[in-house]
Amino acid sequence: MPRGGRRFTAQQKVAIVRLHLIEKKPLSEVCQEHQIDPGTFYRWQKELFEHGAAAFEAQGSKTKADQAAKDQEIARLQARLQKRDEVLAELMQEHVQLKKDLGES
Q: Is 59 exposed, middle or buried (0-12, 13-18, 19+ CB in 10 A)?
């Protein structure tokens, strides 16, 4: 965790790791400038390499928010279908009962 409880966005973390790896800025300077421990830097670097494949996924991939909204819409539509099926079953049951009451087969 950064000193002082400061939080970094994912983009900030990538930019900080990039300073050392790409721009060859000494790790001590990067850590001092951004007030982070070397352990924090190495953890970010590890996470970047472990999850870096996500950067190369298809351009049209959904963000977590997009996926959550889609999942919520699917759940809403499934609930609506369930309700419709229940109403249809009830109507069919009433129809069959009416046919029996009227002596139809």
A: exposed
Q: Residue 1 pLDDT > 50, yes or no?
A: no
What are the residue ranges spanned by the domains of the chain? 1-61, 62-105
Q: 35 and 6 in contact (C-beta within 8 Å)? A: yes
Taking the complete model, does pTM exceed 0.90, yes or no?
A: no
Rounded Cα distance between 79 and 24, Å, is 55
Q: How far apart are alpha carbons 68 and 65 in whole angstroms?
A: 5
What DSSP assignment string belongs to the chain?
--GGG----HHHHHHHHHHHHTS---HHHHHHHHT--HHHHHHHHHHHHHHGGGGGS-TTPPPHHHHHHHHHHHHHHHHHHHHHHHHHHHHHHHHHHHHHHTT--
